[in-house]
Amino acid sequence: MDLSLPVEIKVKANKHRTEIIGKEGSVYVVHVKAPAEKNKANLELIKFFSQLTGKKVNILRGKTSRRKLIG
Questions:
Q1: Whole-angstrom Cα Rg for the chain
Q2: Which of 1, 8, 29, 32 has a CA 20 to 30 Å removed from the CA of 63?
């Protein structure tokens, strides 16, 4: 899967495992295993995309929203 950062994602937390499900237009849909409380889902998301891209990833926009911009 071609991921050029920054990328917009839609997060669904508290799922069975962390994975990219697909795309809705230009937005990637990502399931995250961690719950959406106390920043756990954001940390899991950063860890997942950092391992996937081999680069340090940050949430640029949407820290408290389901839709996020990471880069």
A1: 11
A2: 1
